[in-house]
Specification:
The chain is mainly α and 509 residues long. The chain contains 24 helices and six strands. It is globular.
Length: 509
């Protein structure tokens, strides 16, 4: 039997990580504890800052020595309470708290975290918050934090670390760990190779189950999320997987090859991480082997990494639809946050001027029928909402790979039919309301008809844009979520005004 990352010369590496693992196992994992802890930490920080402020105000008239003693005692009391509270939290919960605090308070809390937990917490926080924490750490602190991590975890942090720190950490690794770090850094961030860890346990196909159990007992512990071991032949090529439940329920003398699973999903290092995540979701997997071109196991991907991919893709999609270029630290500087929002605000400004020019072209019609000005936003708004519903479904389906060239036309016809039906129903309701509001006007009935027809046509435009924009972006290898909602809003606003006022110009002569 062989295990990647299990070898005789790794005692030093195991000792280096022992304190971090022990600390991680001893903390709370209550999902509600993080919210409660955030409130407690904020209250302790408030009291700490308040007392320090009062001490500063009372400094006048007291000796410097007495004042410094009082201030030190007060500071120590509150910080000790904070430190004890943080020690009881899971690294992910500490990360949650750090992301919710302003920068000054965040750094106070970060300084109170035990140094052996720094690496785990850096892995959990968002990229933008991680940058602020790393900037606050000196070289020795960074080295101490990173040295507690495995090779694949070091690779995850490496892009944000100083080059000399990464190099010094690399020199402290064993030869096999260096190779693993080099391999991890060579793969793109959004690839399976960038996700995989090297804790893949392999067994020979001609082992008995008793031999497998005996070998497993020699390990200090099983790697996290181990639901199966991978079966290889004499040349090391992957043959299948042996789930742990089959290992436990079958007789010890049974051969591995007789009970292993042969229908095993395998991944390549350069496979897209998003597609791998979809496979995990589709087949309800806990782990999957990563193989090289010769079908030899080089690592594995586990469900915890896949969940992170799904979460990050979801967040990225939401940010893109909102017109944000990248993830933003909630408490980053005003300048940095403003620049992050400029691109699509500029696009919005241009599209808004275009829409205003459309309205300006029909000033004469609006002067004759003033009610048109009050009804225009309804035509644009309802089409925008309907289009956003369609676009959300389309982007989700594209992400899942459910839309292709063969079904896109049929999907377009369906969405146009839905838009037509909704337009008749809700356009009719809007038309009736418009008629009732302006029935005393000679154009009341005609105004209601114009309203209904404009909504039907604009909903069709919204459906067309909601389908065409994501499909076009995908065709040019662009994220279908980027700016889609901005382009949709521009289209439904401009076309809504053009259709409504154009119809009014034709009908109100």
């Amino acid at each position: 039997m062989a295990e990647h990352d299990t070898r005789d010369d790794q005692d030093t590496a195991d000792e280096r990580r022992a304190d971090a693992n022990e600390a991680s196992q001893a903390v709370s994992r209550d999902p509600e504890d993080a919210s409660r802890a955030l409130n407690e930490v904020q209250e302790l920080l408030r009291r700490h800052n308040l007392v320090l402020d009062l001490a500063q105000r009372q400094r006048h008239g007291e000796s410097d020595e007495r004042h410094e003693l009082v201030e030190s005692l007060v500071e120590r009391q509150h910080l000790n309470e904070l430190r004890e509270r943080l020690d009881r939290l899971h690294p992910a919960d500490v990360a949650y708290i750090l992301e919710a605090l302003p920068v000054d308070d965040r750094l106070v809390v970060w300084d109170l975290v035990k140094s052996e937990r720094d690496g785990e917490i850096l892995l959990e926080v968002s990229d933008s918050v991680r940058e602020s924490l790393i900037r606050s750490m000196d070289r020795e602190e960074l080295l101490e934090a990173v040295e507690t991590l495995d090779a694949d975890e070091i690779a995850e942090l490496a892009p944000g670390l100083p080059t000399d720190v990464v190099e010094e950490v690399r020199q402290g690794l064993t030869q096999e760990e260096r190779e693993q770090l080099r391999a991890s850094l060579s793969y793109p961030e959004d690839s399976v190779g960038g996700l995989m860890d090297f804790d893949a346990i392999t067994v020979q196909h001609d082992y008995t189950l008793e031999m497998v159990l005996r070998e497993l007992r020699r390990l200090q512990e099983l790697p996290d999320h181990t639901d199966q071991v991978f079966v290889v032949d004499d040349r090391g090529e992957l043959l299948g997987g042996l789930p742990l439940d089959r290992l436990l329920v079958n007789q010890p003398e049974v051969l591995v090859t007789d009970v292993m699973r042969r229908d095993l999903l395998t991944l390549q290092p350069m496979d897209d991480a998003g597609e791998a995540a979809q496979a995990f979701e589709r087949y309800d997997l806990m782990s999957a082997p990563v193989v090289d071109p010769r079908n030899r196991v080089i690592g594995r991907v586990t469900v915890d990494e896949v969940i992170d991919v799904i979460r990050e893709e979801g967040e990225s999609e939401m940010l893109a639809k909102a017109g944000l270029r990248e993830e933003e630290d909630l408490f980053s500087s005003v300048w940095a946050s403003a620049r992050n929002r400029w691109l699509w605000l500029a696009v919005n400004l241009c599209t808004a001027f275009f829409a205003s020019r459309v309205i300006g072209a029909f000033e004469g019609t609006i002067e004759r029928v003033v009610a048109l000005a009050t009804l225009m936003p309804i035509v644009a708004g309802i089409a925008g909402n309907s289009g956003n519903q369609t676009m959300t479904l389309i982007i989700r389906s594209l992400a899942l790979g459910q839309i292709n060239a063969s079904n896109a036309k049929r999907l377009l016809l369906k969405e146009l039919a839905i838009a037509g039906l909704n337009g008749l129903v809700w356009g009719g309701v809007a038309g009736i309301i418009a008629y009732l509001l302006y029935q005393d006007s000679p154009q009341g009935l005609l105004l209601g008809f114009t309203m209904t027809l404009a909504i039907v046509l604009n909903l069709a435009v919204g459906a067309l844009i909601a389908l065409a924009v994501p499909l076009t972006l995908v065709r040019f290898d662009r994220d279908p979520a980027i700016g889609s909602s901005v382009l949709l809003t521009f289209s439904t606003d401009s076309m809504g005004f053009l259709i409504f006022l154009g119809l009014a110009t034709l009908l109100f002569r």
